[in-house]
Amino acid sequence: MTRHVSAIAAIPEVRTWVNARQRRAVEDLEVGEGSGGVVVDGRDIGTVVFPEAPLKIFLTATPDERARRRLSQRGQAVDVDQLRRESQALADRDTADSNRPIAPLRPAADAVLLDTTALTLAQQVARVVELARGLFPG
Questions:
Q1: What distances in angstroms separate CA 14 from CA 25, 46, 47, 129, one per listed residue?
Q2: Of 82, 84, 99, 73, nearest in space to 10 by CA
Q3: Comparing C-alpha atoms, which of 60, 45, 121, 58 is closest to residue 91?
Q4: Average pLDDT in the 91-111 region?
Q5: Global pTM?
Q6: DSSP 13-56
Q7: How many degrees, rounded to 5, is the angle at CA 29 between CA 28 and CA 33?
C-alpha cells in the first residue's frame, strides 16, 4: 500500500472522500462530553483537512533517519543497502507528494516546524506536549 499511496492520494475523488471521513470522525469525537481535543496525523491535515486547527506541527526528519526508524519498527536489522533503498523510496514519495497538484505536501503557514532527525521519541513527545500546553494551558 505504501508504494501506491501517493498515486491514490492524487485522485481528486479519493481525496474528497477521505477528507470528508476524517472531518466527520473528528466531529464525532469532539461531540463527546469532556473532549480534550483530537490529534490527527497526515500529509495535508494542516493545509487542507483542518486548516483552522489551532496547533499544527510539521514533523520532519532526513530520509535516512526515517528509513532507519521504519526498519527498526519492523524489527529488521538495519542493512546499509536496504536502508539506502528505503531512504530513496521515502525521498521519492516526498517529492511526488510535494509536487502533486491536489493537496501537496507542505507545512501550513502557521505550522511549527519540528525536525526530529536528532531527537529521541521521548524528546519528540516532550516537545509536542510542550507546544500543546503552551497553547492550551491547564
A1: 16, 18, 17, 32
A2: 99
A3: 60
A4: 92
A5: 0.82
A6: HHHHHHHHHHHHHHHHHHHSTT--------TTIIIII-TT-S--
A7: 105
Long-range contacts of 23-27 (CB under 8 A, 24+ apart): 23/49, 23/50, 26/50
Could you tell me the three cell numbers for 50?
483542518
Amino acid identity, position 50: F
Encode pLDDT of 31-78 as tens digits. Answer: 665 566 788 998 899 999 999 999 999 999 999 999 989 888 888 777
What cell numbers appear for 106 in the block? 507542505
Cell numbers for 87: 531512504
Which one, of 61, 59, 66, 60, lies nearest residue 84 by Cα? Answer: 66
**46 burial level (CB within 10 Å; 0-12, 13-18, 19+):** buried
Q: Cell 536528532 belongs to which residue?
A: 118
CA–CA–CA angle 78, 91, 59 (5° rounding): 90
